[in-house]
Amino acid sequence: PAPARPAARPAPPPRPATAPGEDLFERVPEEPQAGQAWAEAPVEEYSPAWAARFMERWAGGQRMAGEHSAPGAAAAGAGAGAGGQGFLPGDPAAQGMLLEALHHLLEHSRQLRGGAEQAAGTIQQAQGQQRPLTQREMLSVLSLLQATPTATLRAAIGDQHESLSQRLKSEVLANASQLGVDPASTRLDPKDEDAIDLVGMLFDVLLDERDLADRPRELIGRLVVPFVKVALLDRRMFVQKTHPARRLLNALAEACEGNQGESAAERTLLAKVEEIIERLVAEFNENLSIFMTLEEEFREFLEQHRRRVEITERRAAEIQRGQERLEQARQRAQQELAARVEGLELPRAISEFLHNAWQHHVTLALLREGDAGAAFVEAMALADGVLDEVAEARRHVVGKPWLQAWQPALLKVLASVGLHGDAASAAIAAMGDTLQAVAAARPELEKALPELPAVALPQPAPVENSPVDLAGLDEAQGFDKADVDYIRGLPVGTWLDFIDKDGRVQPGKLSWISPISQRLLFVNRRGVRFCVASAEELAAMVRLGRLRMHVADEGAFDAAMQGVIERLDSVVAARGSATLH
Question: Are 139 and 175 in contact (CB under 8 A)?
Fold first, then answer.
């Protein structure tokens, strides 16, 4: 299937002049913290951007149209002109005006789409001989489709190129025969057609523009028919933010978006989504209280999921911190050894000891206690002492009890790699004999170091393949210094949108900033490590158009409604030349 397109995002409000670096990183509302994504804002603080913009535009259009406006639309325009700027869905009058305005926009778009047939008079003549289906008949047909969706309806849900609203209307009329109704003698009531159009287009936008994989897309698609029934029973769903049906849809869509079922937590979440949807399909008749019941149950489950996400996120940061500390310790041990042996040609036994057992011991000492710990200080003294004895041997000092003063320290290092007792004594003796051979200028008498236990130097834990391709994103790629400075100032908790080469968008949350490397760790919505990158690499992504500030929308329902309005506008603007989806 075609990749999910990024959701249409409303443009952020204008900002005052800002410092360099903010041109590409708009200051926008941050994504809610884990768990808060499911929470609702207080009613008095909520004003959906799509509703306010739609009412303002509608009011302007009605003022320009003047006497050509329909009486109801003119009233809606006047109301929106008076209060569209501060439209609040909690106001019943505003809700009524918005529904009226939506009705006229839908009616207008249908007239444009059916213009040729209307001109021929075929539809008007047919409608004159048809009666509208009653609401009871509509609900009965929809209940049949809810229980057993037809193959053509299921196919339409999986097809980005077919209009769900058109398919739904065809299915309702075609299946009316199961109730003993002659489809040729019936038609849809305009208000019922509004409900089907709005729900069909809303799910078209949601399924097309959200990051929904195959199974999540199928699950969300099963909600189409139940939501048509809700729209017939209570049209306030489109304008009332606290409506339980839209709250449930927001929560289910949020749980499905970007969920590939790759982890146990993701699979558990999808299984709960499927359980909730199956119960809704099986139990929803005409009582809307089931939406509230299921939404409350799902929210409780999400609270548990939120705690699991927080634990996963903390683990991701701990793993990254451990990896960077380990890498830092390894590099420090290598640097300390390189500074001491650079330019020296050491006897083989001494070289093997320093490059293996000693370097391993120093790495562990740094991890456990840091460079101020006694183990690290003793190890540095041991390396200096052993190298001093090598220098003495090369001056042909004869008869010295080699390494005797360093035996306790040597035993500690060898013990750290698993060499104890006689085996450790044999290793020290081999190094002593080697130094004696160097002092006597008898290289043939040098002893090989006994085989050490198979203890490799610590390596960083393997990192999963990142979905973000950072190859080549360095200074050679080019970046804006102002963007680097801006990225370094981002607070933990900030969300950014990562855009892949196919245009798919995945939000990532800044979860941790390394005090060692200054790299930034991002996690996805499930708290899983998503990207670890330097500020310079991220700034290079900005220049390539692969990174931007994340604009948190007002939930899947409102984001989809904004898309519905835009698609309806495009039909009206094109005078029927565009196909409505």
Answer: no
- The four Cα atoms 550, 553, 556, 559 give a dihedral, to 10 degrees, of -110
Beta bridge partners of 507: 497
Contact by Cβ (8 Å): 507, 528: no
Q: Please, which residues bridge with residue 510 across strands?
A: 522
412-431 pLDDT, tens digit each? 999 988 888 999 999 999 99
Q: Is 507 helix (H, G, I), strand (E, B) or coil?
A: strand
Alpha-carbon gap, residue 271 to 200, rounded angstroms: 25
Predicted TM-score of the model (pTM): 0.62
Residue 8 has, within 13 A of its CA and on its CB side, a CA count of: 19
> Kind and range of the H or E element at 578?
none
Grouping H, G, I as helix, E, B as strand and the rest as coil, residue 523 is strand
DSSP structure class, residue 405: G
CB 213 within 8 A of CB 270: no
Kind and range of the H or E run holding 543: helix 535-543
Contact 532, 520 (CB under 8 A): yes
Using H for helix, E for strand and C for coil, what is the string for 21-50?
A: CCCCCCCCCCCCCCCHHHCCCCHHHCCCHH
Buried-state track 149-162, b at ≥16 Cβ within 10 A, e below 16:
beeebeebbeeeee
**How far apart, in Å, are the Cα atoms of 216 and each of 39, 252, 550, 556?**
22, 9, 22, 14
Those residues with Cβ within 8 angstroms of residue 390's Cβ, 6 or more apart along the chain or in another chain: 344, 346, 347, 350, 435, 438
Which pLDDT tens digit goes with each residue over 211-244?
A: 788 889 999 999 999 999 999 999 889 888 889 9
Q: Is 460 exposed, middle or buried (0-12, 13-18, 19+ CB in 10 A)?
A: middle
Rounded Cα distance between 181 and 177, Å, is 5
CA distance 567 to 104: 15
Contact 201, 164 (CB under 8 A): yes
**Domains detected in the chain:** 1-30+468-550 (2.30.30.140), 47-287+560-574 (no CATH), 318-445 (no CATH)
